[in-house]
Structure formats: structure tokens, C-alpha cells
Amino acid sequence: MYQIYPRSFSEGTLVGISSRLDYLQWLGVDALWLSPIFLSPMADGGYDVADYCAIDPQFGTLADFDALLSEVHARGMRLLLDWVPNHTSDQHPWFRESRRDRVNAKADWYVWRDQPTNNWLASFPRGEKAWAFDEQRGQYYLRCFLKEQPDLNWDNPEVVAAMLDTLRFWLDRGVDGFRMDVVHLLGKDLNLNDPPICEERVWGHVPYNDQPTTHQHLRTIRSLLDEYSALAVGEVYLLDEQAMTTYHGAGDELHLCFNFRFLWAPFEADELRSRIARTIEVLRDGGAWPTWVLSNHDVPRHRQRYGGDELHARMAAIMLLTLPGTPFLYQGEELGLVDAKIAPADMIDPGGRDGCRAPIPWNEVARQREHPNSILAFYQRLLRLRRATPALHAAGIDNDSFRLFDGSPGLLAWERSDGDAHWFTYINPSDEPQVCSAAMQGATIVVCTDEALEGTMVGAEMPAGVAWVAHNSGTM
Question: pTM for the complete prediction?
């Protein structure tokens, strides 16, 4: 999966995205996820939707979208849209009617109260209350994000029906699925207070919201998507692997959930091994499938978080693209980008996320494509290897298919198997050489951060500061 932030990908338009499809196909992308392209005042980069069934003019037209979808499908790729079910824009016709008075047809489509019923904080701007007073209606409405983003009332069956209709509109046009924004927020206990305020709590109540009613909504959504064989990918920001996996249900809720505990882990072998082991454990028990993601439009780019050096970025690529599950790449990740430096006067994002959303430097893409040793070429080689190797893209997460090696504190390593084919990943970000498991020894290194080691055999001890993928049998 490859995430595109349309405002900054290519010319800021759907036509611009279409013009880059050959590049994405060359890279090895299977599916695209577009951040919101719906009509929006852009108070929150399109996550404040004013019409779920219209393209915002800055991106183009519905005809441009249909052409893009057709061209994506012609290349054997799939297209996912970003659906924002928790809230709309305050400019959406639904909210304009709802705020008019307390007796109109949509009076109960949003969460209104005479007084705040809890102490929730909005996710941003930091420190603001999650309840905003509306002078026109004379009540408070819930806004888990900006005051321009009122929360929908999913306890109202009319809201559920209307939101399902927005999905049908795009499914009928041939869209292959949806990334669902903060989907775990749909069910809310409005009498539940936040945990005590602390420095680490920067998202208000969002990471703590985990209510049973959400699962019924997800089953309803999934039932519709199954009619179209469409994919449901959920942003479930719970920072706990066990809580995250419940959102797969019994195979009747989300197909995939983003793993934010893994995303936020420091690039340290022990912590990464722990997070991978925990994820595999809970998903294996629940019969679900992992996702792995290191960067997106909401967080500093992972190369930035890992210290900025290219070696760690290449190590991270090997990790991301050889784990069992579905990896997500964020636009520009394959170029080894760090966050752009944005002058305060030029910042437009209310959450301060402009640096990771900066335009893709297409001149840099062209330059890197000419150099076989570039990080772009490294990603392309890994993706080509992954696609050609069943053990790396199709093998499961059962004990026979995936095995993490305990190793020493500085080493992250695992084996993936498909029949007689055994593939090994070795990641050593430490300053010390590491002893290799006997199972790895004798395997041939295929892709390595140190090209001098490619084609050599794995020995009993391998050097510090390298990562590689190796195999010892089967066909490549």
C-alpha cells in the first residue's frame, strides 16, 4: 500500500497523480490510498468534509477521478479512499441544518448537550476542550478535533444510513476500499472522563476511546463492503496491540488495523522485537493479518525520528518490507525524506504537521532513478524481491511460517518459510557484531545495506551496523 497526500504529491491534483502512476508501478506498488479528496473548506487538510460525494475543485473533477481509477486498474493496482466517519465539516449541509434549532430533521445528527458531560480535550489545538458552544442553537456540540469538525451521532440510525450511502456512492464507481479515519471513535461513552492530564497525553481522549458500540457499527460497515469485495483499513489509535486486534472482530469488522504502537517504537532492536512479537501473538490468536507502517501524514517521518541518517532508513526498509503482513509506504519514504523545514509564517496545518506533508521533490526522484545505489533503487529492489518471493509476501504468521530469533539485545532477526524456501532477515543497528543463529548460517545474502556483502554467505558472526535479507533454499 502506498499513501498519497494529494495536496503535495504531484501538482496537487488528481491529474497529477495520474501522471505518476508509471512511477508507482515501476516502484512496485500494489495499491494506493488517497488522503481525502472530498469537498472541504480545508480547515484540517480535507479531514473536514463538506460533501462526501463530491471532489474538491482544487483536486479536479469527478471525471478526473474516474479517469484516475480507470488508469490505476489498468495497471493492475487498486485504489482506496480516505473516509472520515467520525465528524464532518461545520460547513456540511447536515450540520448547518442541525445547528439551526433543536427540532429540525437533523437536530440529532450530531452530539449536542446543554452542558459538557465530560472533561475531554480535543486532539488539537492542544489544550482546547472537546465541547464547543454554538450561539445559534444555544447548546454545546462535541468536536474531538477542530471546532470546525463536529462529531456525528452514530447512535442515530439515520446517520448510519446516510454514511453507508456515501460508501455506496464510491463503491458503485469501482473504488476498491477505504482507509477509515479514527474509526474507533464512532462509539462514545459521554459520561466517561479522560484519565488524569499528563504531559504524554497530547491526543485528548482519542487513544483511550474503546467502546463496544463501535464494533456493531463496524460489522454493519463490513457487511456493506463485503457486497463489493472491498477492503476496510482502520485507523485505530489505541497504542495497545490487544485492543487493536479486537477491531478485526470475528473476521467481520476491519480487514486491517494500523499498528501505532509499532510506528512509535524507537529504532532499537529490543523494543522492535517486543512490539513485533506482541503483534504477531495477538493477531495469530485472533486469526487476523498484520499491518506495518512507519510514516504517515500525521507524524514526523520515520527517518527524522530515527536520527536522520540514511543507514537507519535502509535498515527500516528491510524491516518493513520483509515482515509478514501488509506494509504501508508514505509518499516520499522511498526517497529517504526527512521532514521539510517550514517557516512559521508558511505553516497551514492546525496540528503542526506541515513538515511531513511537504511536496514531493520530483527532481530528486529523477536523480535517484539514475543511480542504482540510491535509497529509491534500494526500495525498488526490496519490493521486487518481495513480489517474486512467496515466503516474503504470502507466507502466514503461524509458527511454521514465521519465527523471531531471540538473539542478543542489539539484534533483530527472523525467519520466514514457505515449503522448502527459508528467508532470513538480520538487522543490527548496534555498534557490536552479532552472533547469528545456526539456522541462518550458510544462507546467501541477497539484499544488504552493505553491497559488498551481497552474494556472500552468512557466517557465525556478522558485523555491526548492517541489515540484510538472505535465503538458503528454494527459488528466487
Answer: 0.95
